[in-house]
Specification:
Radius of gyration: 30 Å
Structural class: mainly alpha
Strand content: 5-15%
Number of helices: 7
Length: 218
């Protein structure tokens, strides 16, 4: 029987040694095992792929993903491989991101299962139950994405400036300009101070002129 090629692996990589590639997880009757010829190296590679720093955290995240992959009464190895692939593609950078990303891929899998149940509902009760669950999961996923983006940007909301006015001698930037809030506030403060300076100078010149006029009349 011919098997389809793995389209996720470039041909140039497929011909090389795979000992340093992110390992797969093989499900066993008593749990799971990291599919790698060097068990210690395989655990380090998996920990790096998940964004965690130690063996315990790595095993904890994988164990939770195994439980989230359960279809029917047992974990599904194909679903687990997909979930781990999605986690690796998002590239969590620390333990907090690892937990959040694991939740994200689990929510996605559950949402797709609810979509399947909704498409195959036999009666109105099953339809309504699947629709409600799918709606909640569909709203949760973008909220998780926003939480990850905010955490990665250190909680600073990005502001996009679309209308930019350029004074004489200035340089225009074509396109949208995105800055963080504290940068915009700082720039606004400097701009406000620059606008107030000419007004103050004009007021002083007016007072000096009035005093000179009164002295001439005296």
């Amino acid at each position: 029987m011919n098997t389809a090629p793995d389209i996720t692996t470039p041909t140039t990589v497929a011909a090389t040694d795979q000992t340093n590639a992110a390992p797969r997880i093989k499900l066993q009757s008593h749990g799971f095992a990291i599919d790698h010829p060097d068990q210690a190296l395989g655990e380090r590679l998996m920990a790096n792929a998940l964004g965690v720093t130690d063996r315990e955290a790595m095993h904890g995240i994988v164990r939770q993903l195994v439980k989230a992959s359960v279809s029917g009464e047992s974990p599904d190895e194909v679903t687990l491989s997909f979930m781990l692939s999605m986690v690796r593609s998002i590239r969590p950078r620390d333990s907090l991101e690892a937990m959040l990303v694991a939740q994200m891929v689990s929510v996605h899998v559950m949402a797709m299962r609810c979509a399947h149940h909704l498409a195959n509902a036999d009666d109105l009760a099953q339809h309504d139950s699947a629709a409600r669950a799918l709606g909640r999961l569909a709203r949760t996923f973008p909220a998780q994405m926003e939480a990850l983006n905010r955490y990665r940007s250190h909680g600073e909301p990005a502001i996009t400036v679309q209308n930019v006015s350029v004074a004489d001698g200035g340089k225009a930037i074509v396109g949208n300009v995105t800055q963080h809030a504290r940068v915009i506030v700082s720039d606004k403060s400097r701009a406000s101070a620059a606008r107030k300076a000419p007004k103050a100078a004009g007021a002083r010149r007016g007072r000096d002129s009035a005093e000179a006029k009164r002295e001439a009349e005296a």
